[in-house]
Model the fold of this input.
Amino acid sequence: MFGLDTSLTVLLLVCLLAAAAFEFINGFHDTANAVATVIYTNSLKPWAAVIWSGIWNAIGVFAGGIAVAMGITTLLPTELLLDTNIYHNIALILSLLITAIAWNLGTWYLGIPCSSSHTLIGSIIGVGLGFAFIAPENGFSFVNWSKAGDIGLSLVLSPLLGFSLAILLMYILRQVVRSKQIFKEPATNAPPPFWIRLVLLLTCTGVSFSHGSNDGQKGVGLVMLILIAIVPGYFTLNLEKNTADVRDQVTEVKNIMAKINPSEFNLDEKLNYDKANTYILHFDSVLNTGTAIADLSNQQKAGLRKDMILMGKEVKKLMSSSNLNLSLTNKKQLKKSVDDLKGITEYAPFWVIIMISLSLGLGTMIGWKKIVVTIGEKIGKQHLTYAQGASAELVAASTIGFSTWLGLPVSTTHVLSSGIAGSMVASKGIKNLQAKTIKSIAIAWILTLPVSIILSGSLFLLFRWIL
Done:
């Protein structure tokens, strides 16, 4: 397979199966976020809810694009992913996979809603920091701290946003909706009125779809990390890209960059401009050798990938500058040309999306009950009402969907759990929360990143020593 010997082929398959297992666990770990409200308001039977949610999770993976996935793959520098010793790359992948799976399974077993996003990102950062202990000083960071900062900010702010928006939405509902039935505890085994049931079904669908489009992309990004690290010759770049088309896109970027007058920039902006030009000129020089992308050496492919990622960052900085002396048309064309060119690195094979979609969808239908009970019964002291369920899920679906549009991974678990907590507080104040459950969720939230960073980094150093 991919020109690997038998032992490496087996290790590649093990890593791919582990990635599928992570996404499978992610499915049943996070299912509660979508189905708890429809189950506890008697809107759907549990078996129907998890099947419905599983289907929409799978659809979300296909429809969500790959922006979040690419954010995951760029957390680690290309140099670290493309170690010439393939066993070092396998040590990297196994470390983060084992950490992510172990923490997810542990928190699921205890019935604690926990973020798969925090776990995966912490594992990736841990590997980068672990490598920093053993690598010679060579002038580059082993973690993309800029990207990690953006992701970290989204993971911290999203639950606060979910909590606040749920309170606000509950207040608006009380002012607008005349029927008080939606604010009462559902009658035992009695389905809600049709319109309430329809709203709850729509919000369940929205959360499931949003979860698939965001968390599913994390699985896609994880698989791409595996493929780039173990079989870089096939997956470092999109080999299906037409070399002539890519060359034309590079020429377009060069031509527009040549129209910029750097004398109007400040010192930092001039540096950004010079770096962007350096990367695009090197990219162009490799393509102008006349060699097709598929026939380039692994080192050349790695160089082009690095050029593309770094050039995109520098151009983005320039585009945000008020000193950029380009017409609106040229600015739009530059952005479009760079975005088109990113297709050579920002991609995922169709079979990867299929694999993650099936893993997430199937996982959604299994093992959901522990977290559902926590979400539905243990966050608040009162039974979940129709209004609380709809508010929390509407906030979760919109927040996750917006984050996916921005290309940022966000914790479905934390957004929904905080939304439920906010709806409970909106009903009867802070005393309506169960302190023990909130404390457990908060501790897991605080510990997930440091634990996954330390465990992943330690495993990486161990595996590097063994392999």
Q: What stands out?
A: The chain is about 75% helix and 0% strand. Residues 11-234+350-466 form one domain. The mean pLDDT is 83.
